[in-house]
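S1.2 Input.
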Amino acid sequence: MAIQELRIARTAGRLCGAIVVLGLLGGTGFGGVREERAAEAVLTHQRLSFAGVRQWQRKQKTWVPLQRTGTKVLVVNLWSKLCKPCLGELPPFGRIARAWRNRPEVQFAFIADPPNQTSLQEVVEFWQRPEISVPLDKPCPGNRMPLGDGTGCMLEVPDVDPARSDAPLVGPTLRPLTLLVDSHNVIRQVLAGSIEERADDLDASLKHLLAILQSEDKDRQAQPSRPARAPR
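S1.3 Output.
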């Protein structure tokens, strides 16, 4: 499939045709395996633009453009404060990010998207105090202890500076969504739906993709360089 620039209006229309509109207050947000496979087919091999993504630097207390750190793989998690499955998968994401902390070839980005659901201030406040409400008969995500009145949970968010996109990266209706993006900002793998119960799948996917990228690098290095053409 040819690599194309991911245009928001075009992609949003294609996703609406392929994906069931999210039920933001429950479930995984998808209609089933068929819809998840459709999301993967639409997004895989597309190139993302992070021009409108800003990251909150917690120590400096300022917003800056999201910067790639020279990594082979950028793990992009798209979340929204209104998407309960998105918030429920943050604790296992935190454990995965810690496990990969000393691997410089991998970088994590937790991007609030679409922007009309989570403001810049809400991103900052939620990362400082990640509290969500839950029904009385539901456990807290990640086995966290409920708050005093029993109707809320304090989550464990990843120890990564959060980010927010000024415009929808992949359309407004597709959440939760995790993208494995290579150094050229091309989406190499899509994990549609919550990873709360399948964190091992993400870990295995990361290892597999790194092996593929390493093999591709070796193949490129083994190819003989073409001699420069002599000027006419």
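S1.4 Remarks. Residues 1-31 have pLDDT under 50 and may be disordered.
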